[in-house]
């Protein structure tokens, strides 16, 4: 009996929270790209070729296991990022919403 009352109380509280919501929330769509360094050695550059023209800067990049980007050059569909990424590290690139449909054609690490 107690279990039924607890479940009913939980449902009533959940219904109250849902009913008190003010606005619907629509998430922003970003294109999050993760580039893993599986080369076995530390790398210093990443070259990326996209299928469409894109624009981004160093603020769109986070490196887990490495340094911060020292230079970012983006020209039409090509991007070159100077950044140290340790062996086994990951570079995360978050493209702005207007480029969320961009896909990577190819990418290359450089030592």
Characterise this structure.
With 111 residues, the protein is of the alpha+beta class. It is built from 1 helix and 6 strands, in the order αββββββ. The termini are far apart.
Features:
111 residues; alpha+beta; six-stranded antiparallel β-sheet; 6 strands; elongated
Task: Produce a short descriptive summary.
Helix content is 16%, strand content 45%. It has one helix and six strands; from the N terminus they run H-E-E-E-E-E-E.
Outline the secondary-structure elements.
Layout: H1 2-19, E1 31-36, E2 43-50, E3 61-66, E4 71-75, E5 78-95, E6 104-110
Antiparallel strand pairs: 1-5, 2-5, 2-6, 3-5, 4-5
Uncertain segments of ≥5 residues (pLDDT<50)?
none
Tell me the helix content.
10-25%
Name the structural class: alpha+beta
Question: What gyration radius follows from the Cα positions, in whole Å?
Answer: 22 Å
Shape type = elongated
Extended strand count? 6
* Proportion of beta-strand residues: over 45%
Mean pLDDT: 82
- Give the SSE string: HEEEEEE
Counting H and I runs of at least 4 residues, what is the number of helices? 1
Largest sheet: 6 strands, antiparallel
Distance between the termini: 67 Å
Quaternary status: single chain
